[in-house]
Write a structure and sequence with these properties.
single chain; alpha/beta; 8 helices
Length: 447
């Protein structure tokens, strides 16, 4: 169920009039209504929840939250007035806190137990502002600052005020007061240069510099397409670049080496799509993305995590590993320089393993928890999430299947004597244990 939160600038500068004869606030209200009509065309919009926040001082800035219905939302939108200050930082913090209000109760963030992409509450904040100077009761602000303190319990467990399933977009109104003499040029809408743009990019969103009414409609249609179920990850390369390949996907030693230095595909901040199950309508998954720390029994608190996990990928070609009766999770990556580079290599039969730093006990890089792989049709790149350290676990399970142990069917009392009382199957050569948890199996490295 997507959450669509509109943050409307109600500062006094929003009362300025454009060459159309309407104020910026009137245009903002009309943009919200147009977005809702465009969104209603999608059958998936039936479960949408709309929220409305203004630039008023908290808690009065929350006009429609978790309890208000659609009629209240529309009535509050109609009654907005441009009479306040440009308190963008405080209003953004109010918006994020509103979205995060129930997350600790629902356990959606799963702190300390790995990040589950299939536990998500996809949210989009759409800010409509004029991009003028930021002000508060103390004067004019040159930079955007969000208050650090939050009244929500558990907010200290995430470094940023947002979460990986929340993205910020901004429509910055730049419509002139006089009729422009030059004809409008069609094309993509550029980002704005106001203070909100870096904040949008950090969350995985972007800003739009809106100069005409037609451009506004183009931006709204683009935003409707951005309503996707997914989470944002940071993909970063570790180790050397791969060897160049020819047009047939085979390593070509004669082909020129890639340019020296950082490349756009080395680091990408993009969404992975989390598709709902076609029967239940909710996402289904099995394996988490590991935490970036090894548990310490002597630590009184959990270390705070970054909103977006940093997933390291190694460019060493490996064979994809899958065995029968062991589930895996598959997520499509949003198009990016990384996906373009992998697809151009035309190697759908190989994969690149992925890691999370400090997830292992004895290694900074940790063990692989999955891999990146191009689809067979070479039209997208998928992230496969497997059990932690799957290259060791899967051969062990395959060996168990060959000996007909039937781990998922036999009760614990009927397993061989190599199974300890606490339910661990020990392989002294691999120095790992397979812990039986319900019908799923996870891997832990032991000393």
């Amino acid at each position: 169920m997507p959450i669509l939160l509109f943050l409307i600038d109600t500062s006094a500068s929003m009362s300025q009039r454009t060459h159309l004869g309407t104020t910026y606030l009137d245009i903002a209200k009309g943009a919200v209504e147009t977005f809702m009509k465009l969104r209603a065309r999608d059958p998936g919009s039936r479960g949408d929840r709309y929220m409305l926040v203004s630039f008023d001082e908290p808690p009065y800035g929350i006009k429609a939250g978790w309890k208000e219905n659609h009629a209240t939302f529309m009535n509050e939108l109609k009654n907005l007035q441009a009479v306040g200050l440009s308190t963008l930082g405080q209003s953004l913090r109010t918006s994020f806190d509103l979205l995060n209000l129930n997350r600790l109760v629902t356990g959606i963030d799963n702190y300390g137990q790995g990040r589950n992409p299939f536990f998500l509450e996809p949210s989009i904040i759409i800010t409509i502002t004029d991009g003028n100077k930021l002000t508060n009761n103390g004067g004019v602000q040159e930079e955007l600052h969000l208050p650090l303190n939050s009244p929500l319990p558990g907010s200290e467990l995430t470094k940023e005020p947002f979460r990986w399933d929340q993205r910020l977009f901004a429509l910055v109104l730049r419509l002139p007061g006089l009729m422009p003499l030059e004809t409008e040029q069609l094309g993509s809408v550029p980002s704005d240069e106001s203070a909100i743009t870096p904040m949008c990019e950090v969350t995985g969103g972007r800003s739009y510099c809106v100069c005409t009414q037609r451009m506004l409609l183009q931006c709204l249609e683009s935003l409707v397409q951005k309503v996707q179920s997914g989470v944002v990850l940071n993909f970063e390369k570790t180790g050397p670049d791969p060897a160049p390949v020819g047009d047939d996907g085979v390593t070509d030693g004669l082909k020129s080496a890639p340019p020296f230095g950082p490349q756009p595909w080395h680091s990408c901040h993009k969404l992975i799509y989390v598709r709902p199950n076609h029967k239940t309508g909710v996402p289904v998954g099995h394996w988490p993305i590991p935490e970036s720390f090894w548990p310490d029994q002597n630590s009184p608190t959990l270390p705070p995590r970054s909103a977006h996990p940093v997933v390291k990928f190694s460019c060493a070609d490996c064979d994809p590993m899958v065995i029968d009766k062991l589930p895996f999770d598959k997520y499509e990556l949003e198009p990016s320089p990384l996906t373009q580079y992998i697809l151009e290599r035309k190697s759908p039969l190989t994969c690149w393993q992925v890691y999370v730093n400090n997830s292992g006990k004895y290694s900074d890089l940790g063990h692989p928890f999955g891999y990146l792989k191009a689809s067979t049709a070479l039209n997208c790149v998928n992230l496969f999430v497997m059990p932690y350290n799957y290259p060791v676990l899967l051969p062990l399970l395959e060996k168990c299947n060959q000996h007909e142990l039937g781990l998922t069917n036999k009760p614990l009392s009927r397993l061989p004597l190599t199974v300890r009382k606490h339910g661990s199957l020990v392989d002294t050569k691999a120095r790992h244990c397979c812990c039986i948890v319900s019908w799923m199996i996870c891997l832990k490295c032991i000393s």
